[in-house]
Design a protein that fits this description.
The structure is a single chain. The chain is α/β, with parallel strands linked by helices and 600 residues long. Among the domains are: 228 residues, FAD/NAD(P)-binding domain; 169 residues, FAD/NAD(P)-binding domain, CATH 3.50.50. The chain contains 21 helices and 20 strands. Strands 2, 3, 4, 5, 6, 19 and 20 form a 7-stranded mixed beta sheet that branches. It is globular and about 70 Å long. Bound molecules: NADPH dihydro-nicotinamide-adenine-dinucleotide phosphate (NDP). The site of NADPH dihydro-nicotinamide-adenine-dinucleotide phosphate (NDP) has 28 residues, from strand 7 and helix 8. The site of NADPH dihydro-nicotinamide-adenine-dinucleotide phosphate has 28 residues, from strand 7 and helix 8.
Length: 600
């Protein structure tokens, strides 16, 4: 039987009640009746917020050709798919990407201060294949983008790539897919892998007057260096005489604020919910350590990180940072196996106490760093750890000690209320600014297939979303569906996500690559699960999906809990490590016959 974590923090009943009440009150202050509908998409009249500042538009003739595989999305998911398909022996692999180059979210996001907030030795994929060891424990965005491009070169993925191209329709036609695009292309491919949409579409708050503000505005994912000057390392000299507003205080703003604070004449940070801000402690890679790495180091380290943050047994904590410390300190809060022997109520009581202790430490950190007590009070996060994406910075909180920086709390007003021609308005007070920077995030995890923006017509012309409307979402392992042969979805659908999402995507890409390799070896033309296999998998998801709706329901609103209107997450409960092993066993055993059947 497992033992409880070594020390259970002591809280009196009164302290527990007070914290619970405070959390509830802070949530109530922020829940909005319009939920996710409060946001506007960066399209139509706001389309310019999503324009590409990094590449010149170019013309090309529409393509009417045939390749072996088409991958939608040139971010790390698509690149991993491309690489793994190359390893599976495919010659013609075409990645189709809306941006002007590979990198996905790292192509779009180049804001000052941009860094990976997960250790780069576990976050960046295909490090050994490319022969690269990141230069920092937490890589700057440009290093990550360069690595994405290096993957493209290493696996010869530029040859057939189509950039600045959006796929508009997928249609199954007599044994292959027709892929239509917004450039008039009509390409054919045996296999299609969909890997787009995770942090793709910038979103804006639907604030009245947003269109009538006369100053300069842009979204952090399309940083306008033409206006601010400088680059991702800072030096924003164009802001020296500017009054700037940053709206939002999520993981992006935490990285941006210190730079704008340093360089702008005046900065107002408009906060609705404060982030939890833990220690960063970035440092350059030790060259001796890099030289000592043995083959297989990358997979071992990734698996170790995954084990620690998902509460799996791990003898060592190789990454040993604030992510893993939190998972350890909280008694592996997301643990599944680790708490299996415990009475649920008892475990949840202990978990809550550890959580209070962790969050108290983070709130104390705010008090230690921020000089002005009133500002410090506003910056304290009052919710359970993980309600919002945890953030890490040794600079963010300090920025509020600068005389040119002010924090504006918008919590009681549902956020920024409106814009006038020259101001941001909160609680009836006008804050005159020259420039508004939206650090308001993305539509997270909604691929165009799932939203219906990209219609997918399978066998007999059936539309995927229509099929799912009748049966509920039905896949085998989250990847493939009956009636839609040779089509693979990467992402969080009906499988086991984790914080190191690129690792999850790479494991998925490995799986898809090996399934396709097996199909080719056996001369199977259509990879397609039987309906029964899908039904069994959905039953597995239903039976194991973690019952965390109560946790989401008590959190302050945000995209993690569908803006406070929590909906059950449908994921594989035992977690990513067990899921990945399940896939390996499935591939090496009879399971794979479920999608390959007889040679056809
Ligand atoms: P988020 O969605 O996390 O944050 C958006 C922010 O905008 C929130 O603080 C939100 O407040 C605020 N906001 C929205 N509407 C209003 C309004 N009307 N008035 C005032 N404030 C408003 O977006 P981010 O870009 O910060 O992060 C998105 C994701 O990107 C992260 O969760 C993370 O997964 C990823 N990321 C990863 C990094 C990495 O290194 N791997 C680095 C940066 C981001 P509220 O919380 O109250 O809704």
């Amino acid at each position: 039987m497992s033992t409880l974590p070594p020390s259970i923090p002591e809280f009196s009943d009164a302290e527990v009640d007070a914290l619970r009440q405070r959390y509830r009150a802070e949530r109530e202050r922020r829940v909005r009746p319009d939920g996710s509908a409060q946001y506007a998409r960066a399209e139509g009249g706001f389309g310019y917020y999503a324009e590409d500042p990094h590449a010149e538009e170019f013309d090309r003739e529409p393509l009417h050709d045939r390749v072996e595989a088409i991958v939608l999305g040139g971010g790390f998911g698509g690149l991993c798919a491309g690489a793994r398909l190359r390893q599976a022996g495919l010659e013609r692999i075409r990645i189709i990407e809306k941006g002007g180059d590979f990198g996905g979210t790292w192509y779009w996001n180049r804001y000052p201060g941009i860094h990976c907030d997960i250790e780069s030795y576990v976050y960046l994929p295909l490090l050994e294949e490319v022969g690269y060891v990141p230069k920092w424990k937490y890589s700057p965005g440009e290093e990550i983008r360069q690595h994405a491009m290096a993957i493209g070169r290493t696996f010869d993925l530029y040859r057939d790539a189509c950039f600045q191209t959006g796929v508009t329709e997928l249609q199954w036609d007599d044994g292959e897919w027709i892929v239509r695009t917004d450039r008039g292309d009509e390409m054919r491919a045996t296999y299609v892998v969909v890997s787009n949409g995770t942090l793709d579409h910038p979103k804006l708050p639907g604030i009245p007057g947003i269109g009538s503000f006369r100053g300069h505005t842009f979204h952090t994912s399309r940083w306008d260096y033409g206006y601010t000057g400088g680059g991702p390392d800072g030096g924003l000299d164009g802001l020296a005489d500017k009054r700037v507003a940053i709206i939002g205080t999520g993981a992006t703003a935490i990285q941006v604020v210190p730079h704008v604070a340093r360089d702008a004449a005046q900065l107002h940070v408009f906060q609705r919910t404060p982030s939890s801000v833990d220690v960063r402690d970035n440092r350059p890679t030790d060259p001796e350590w890099a030289a000592s790495l043995e083959p297989g180091w990358h997979a071992r380290r990734r698996e170790n990180f995954q084990a620690v943050v998902t509460g799996r047994p791990a003898e060592v904590d190789l990454v040993d940072d604030a992510w893993t410390a939190s998972a350890n300190v909280l008694g592996k809060i997301i643990a599944t196996d680790a708490r299996a022997d415990w009475d649920v109520d008892e475990w949840e009581r202990v978990e809550e106490l550890l959580d209070f202790e962790k969050m108290n430490r983070l709130r104390a950190r705010v008090e230690e760093v921020v000089d002005d007590p009133a500002t410090a009070e506003l910056l304290k996060p009052w919710y359970r750890y993980g309600c919002k994406r945890p953030t890490f910075s040794d600079e963010y909180l300090k920025a509020f000690n600068r005389p040119n920086v002010a924090l504006v709390d918008t919590a009681d007003h549902g956020g920024v209320e409106r814009f006038s021609e020259n101001s941001v308005v909160v609680g009836g007070q006008e804050y005159e600014v020259d420039c508004v920077i939206f650090a308001t995030g993305f539509e997270v995890g909604k691929s165009d297939v799932m939203t219906g923006r990209l219609p997918v017509h399978g066998r007999d012309g059936t539309r995927l979303l229509d099929a799912w409307r009748e049966t509920g979402v039905r896949t085998l392992h989250g990847f493939c569906c009956n009636g839609f042969p040779n089509l693979f979805h990467l992402g969080a659908l009906q499988n086991a996500p984790s914080v190191n999402f690129v690792h999850v995507l790479d494991e998925q890409a490995i799986h898809v690559g090996e399934v396709i390799a097996a199909a080719r070896e056996r001369g199977v033309k259509c990879v397609e699960p039987a309906v029964e296999a899908e039904i069994d998998w959905v039953a597995t998801i239903e039976a194991t999906s973690p019952e965390r709706a109560w946790f989401d329901a008590e959190c302050t609103p945000g995209y993690y809990n569908n803006e406070g209107a929590a909906r059950p997450r449908r994921t594989f409960g035992p977690g990513p490590a067990v899921f990945q092993q399940l896939l390996r066993d499935w591939r090496s055993g009879d399971g794979i016959d479920e999608v390959l059947g007889d040679a056809n």
